[in-house]
Amino acid sequence: QQQVRQSPQSLTVWEGGTTVLTCSYEDSTFNYFPWYQQFPGEGPALLISILSVSDKKEDGRFTTFFNKREKKLSLHIIDSQPGDSATYFCAAEAGANTGKLTFGHGTILRVHP
Amino acid sequence: EAAVTQSPRNKVAVTGGKVTLSCNQTNNHNNMYWYRQDTGHGLRLIHYSYGAGSTEKGDIPDGYKASRPSQENFSLILELATPSQTSVYFCASGDRDWGPYEQYFGPGTRLTVL
Lengths: 113, 114
Fold this sequence. Notes:
The complex is a heterodimer of chains A (113) and B (114).
Chain A: E1 4-7, E2 10-14, E3 19-25, E4 32-38, E5 45-51, E6 56-59, E7 62-67, E8 72-77, E9 86-93, E10 101-103, E11 107-112
Parallel strand pairs in A: 2-11
Antiparallel strand pairs in A: 1-3, 3-8, 4-5, 4-9, 6-7, 7-8, 9-10, 9-11
Chain B: E1 4-7, E2 10-13, E3 19-25, E4 31-38, E5 42-49, E6 56-57, E7 65-67, E8 73-78, E9 87-95, E10 102-105, E11 109-113
Parallel strand pairs in B: 2-11
Antiparallel strand pairs in B: 1-3, 3-8, 4-5, 4-9, 5-6, 7-8, 9-10, 9-11
């Protein structure tokens, strides 16, 4: 049973456009939601994260939104660049302070110049 | 800079053979993790550890064993490798010292079981 659902599976945007990735979850004990970015041939790396007590976290061109009532989160990338082309994973921490992350299946993003 | 290294980077094994994947971290993190990554499945947790001498089962532990002999090293062992274990394996380390919790990933090991 997939506990974190991520969409879309793949996405193509033009350079300068806005990218929106979404995730939903079911487990109400999830309280920490990181987004990881993975380039081909590399391991994932933390991009941005948010706690369930917040509804928005911004870091440069990257913003994550969290809706506790709907159990949804999203990642917005403004002014998308070809260098943003990568696979993006949302994740959730299983229970308070366990350190265990449950990952979504990932979204492959391609940004065309 | 956090550092997690994995060896080997590529491995071809035969069905029924024993495979050991190694991971070393210099971050002095208590927690270490083993994931496998397959197309369409994302990252799935196999085993994890909260410190030297401890191992815990993750979401898909069947067919795998883990060993944490020291703070720095965490191994994943496939006693009887099967073709279904062909995958890319990632090791990660993490600790909640301060700020947002982050797992630092190694570069991955590509395992092919023939």
